[in-house]
Amino acid sequence: MARFMRGLTYSPARMSRDHETNKTTQRRFAFRRRNWSLAMKIFSYIVIVVILIQVQNGNAALIHHYTFDSDASDSTGTADGTLVGGASVSGGQLVLDGVSDYVQFGSFIVPTSGDYSVSFFAKSNSVQMLYTEMISQGSSGGGFFIGQTQGPGNIRVSDFWINTGVAYPLDLLQHHFAVTVGASLTSLYIDGSFVASSALSVYSHPTAGTNTRLGKQFNPFAEYFHGTLDDVRIYNHALPSNEVLNIYRGVPEPPSNLALLGPSPSSALVLQE
To answer: In whole angstroms, how large is the CA radius of gyration of the chain?
Structure first.
């Protein structure tokens, strides 16, 4: 028994080492608990900030998107278009002959109230001397359209901003066009750069008239566009300038799901002391 007891006897040095080991272990556990608490707080703050941003933006979203992969289908919403008069799709672009081709929709795809934005790429295949429209809806006197005056002339945006003072590009190259409409300001962008604005809101107010078209004016006018259209987007809010630039540069749409924020706190790394 004495021999057994001697085997259980700790020397002062060993007891000191064990005591320090226990203290170190306790400190590590305490540090990990603090680290976990900090991770939870950071994650909670991120969620709160994202929720506040979403609340501030309301239902701001891309509501219609046309990439012309095979036809004029809406890849975001349900407003598909119909190819009319020989209009075709080739290489991810809508091809229009300037004589009888256009796309017809069954409704107004540009919002008729509130803020909105219209964005697309266009390439003219010839210098057209008459009025031409790349997108239109409604009727004369209060309709919406983006096109050019005759001449060839300047870009025009609806009956409310009939002459922007900005020359329509005549180089027969592809360009990006965007119009953003807010409560007191309408802005025009070309190739990601701001080029003009109007203090009047170019609100699209038609409650009657011709449903949205691509490549042709609303009835009873023709004003066909000769060229190609690509990546047509309709938003239900006024895009800020940096988002317009991102579209021009081909930056993908940002995710809107909270699940895409990143790893959850449960998978966060625990820092070592």
So the answer is: 30
